[in-house]
Amino acid sequence: MKKIYIKFIVFMIFCMLFSIYSYAENEKNVYVIPIKGEINPAVTQFVKSSLEKAESDPNSVAVIFEIDTLGGMIKEATKIRDAIMKTPLRTISFVNKRAESAGALITIASENIAMSSGSTIGSAETIPYTEKNISYWKGELRTTAQQRGRDTRLVEAMADRRIEIKNPKDPDKYIIKKGELLNLTTKEAEELGFTDLVGNSYEEILKRFDIQYSEIINIQTDFKMSIAQIVSSSIFLPIILSIGFIGLLIEFFTPGFGMGGTLSIIAFTVFFGGSMLAGNASFAVISIFIAGVLLLLIEAIAPGFGAPGIGGILCIIISIILSSDSIALGITSLAIALVLTIISAILLLKYGPRNQYFDKIILATALKKEKGFVSNVEKDEMLGLEGVTITPLRPSGAVLVNDQRIDVVTAGEFIEVHMKVKIIKVEGRKIVVKKIS
Fold first, then answer.
1. What's the pLDDT tens digit per position in 273-287?
2. Is 246 exposed, middle or buried (0-12, 13-18, 19+ CB in 10 A)?
3. Residues 60 and 158 in one domain
4. Last residue of a domain, one of 335, 360, 385
5. Residue 124's domain spans which residues?
């Protein structure tokens, strides 16, 4: 009896182990990787890392790329295309709403294409529209379409408005006329055989392509990815830089360290942090930016404008360009940020005094005698006196007149230390001087 009992226990353990092994053998995972928003370095990094995660899973059998994008950078789109075409897993592009511009290349990179109802794909013209860019882009689209067995003529018509395609079923009608870019709706893509399926759910797509699975794993974008995508965006990049420069501008107008400096630090931290997450910046690039700021501080202390100031400006410009996805994007973003900063400076000087808050930054209150304001010390008798600068005047500073230290300003010129000056105007407590030989 005891032997039978032991045999029964051994048999049950064997059955349990066999069932667990069988379940593990039958477990098949499908990963869903979203490709949404502007195609930029952050999206490329996300797609590559997500694909690596799916490929490292021994039970993964397929990947669905859920696409909803208006396009973005061609270089990044080709990187994503290459990653999709190299993976050993079964690949499906699911156009859920739109796959415009660079999104069209990513879509045709997969083995199968599915589109949800009401979606579109196409309008893949390059910016700027030049023969060189169009030729290169059409070649990328064409070779991808050929490898995946797609209609190369339709794909090229999405990028080149010079292509004209007649409807094979009705020669009097056109799929696309010359001068227009091809953009297919879900229904049109289905009629032309460009999409393999019209579906609105993962389950429907997997059933149609006869992919057996036990679990669908959705990979979500995290906070770091979102920040990196914003910073890498051609729209938000100049805005972030503008906030950083405007913050510095406000800091120059205000005494001590306050709101402007804090705003600037946050903006540049977001910019360089996001650039690092997107793979564009390194600690060496950030060091160049910090060196630029330190050089400008040295310039602010030293008289005149020389090598430290020029070097500081160059370091900041170089670091920002190196942190951008391309030289063109970096220069364009800097130019836009510079224009916005200049406009902000003009508005700050013009309208700041009228604002209750900015009145604290730029003092607009005039202390006039007609309103009863009287200076503690009448200084009209100082008009015409001469003295020597004891600090650089840029344009404010201090001079020594008759062994008395006096705070003065110039008419806008810079005067170095130990230079002879003459008092040319006295307006209440404001004393204006000019350099004399």
1. 777 766 677 788 888
2. buried
3. yes
4. 360
5. 2-221
Looking at per-residue confidence, does 249 or 46 come out higher?
A: 46
Residue 308, domain member (yes or no)? no
Gap between the Cα atoms of 115 and 101, Å rounded: 16
Mean pLDDT of 211-231: 81
| Token pair for 410 | 């110039």
Q: For tokens 């004393």, what's the residue?
A: 431
Determine the number of helices (DSSP H) and then strands (DSSP E) in the chain. 14, 15
Give the pLDDT band of residue 52 (cuts 50, 70, 90). Answer: very high
Sort 95 into a burial class: Cβ within 10 Å, 0-12 / 13-18 / 19+.
Answer: buried
Q: Would you place residue 235 in the very low, low, confident or very high pLDDT band (cuts 50, 70, 90)?
A: confident
At residue 120, the 3 state secondary structure works out as: strand
Amino acid 253: pLDDT? 62
Torsion of CA 81, 86, 89, 95, to 10 degrees: 10
Query: Which pLDDT does position 278 carry in this prediction?
Result: 67
pTM, two decimal places:
0.63
Q: Are residues 33 and 166 in the same domain?
A: yes
Would 306 be classed as within a structural domain?
Answer: no
Contacts for 279 with CB less than 8 Å, ≥ 6 apart: 41, 45
What confidence category does residue 19 fall into, taking pLDDT thresholds of 50, 70 and 90?
A: very low
The last residue of one of the domains, among 360, 385, 411, is: 360
What pLDDT shows up at residue 130?
83
259 and 195 part of one domain: no
Q: What is the CATH number of the domain that holds 409?
A: 2.40.50.140
Residues 127 and 231 in one domain: no
Check if the beta carbon of residue 415 is closer than 8 Å to that of residue 392: yes
Angle at CA of residue 73, ends 68 and 77, nearest 5°: 65
**β-bridge pairing 29-36 and 165-167:** unpaired
Q: Which of 273, 277, 246, 276 is nearest to 262 (CA)?
A: 246
- CATH number reported for the structural domain that contains residue 95 in this entry: 3.90.226.10
Does residue 134 belong to any structural domain of this protein? yes
Q: What does the pLDDT average to over 109-118?
A: 95
SS3 state at 228: helix
Rounded to an integer, the average pLDDT of 162-174 is: 83
- Tokens in use for 114? 């599915």
Separation of CA 311 from chain center: 26
Query: Which DSSP string corresponds to 414-432?
Result: -B-TT-EEEEEEEETTEEE
Non-local (6+) Cβ contacts of 270 within 8 A are: 227, 231, 240
What residue has token string 């344009």? 395
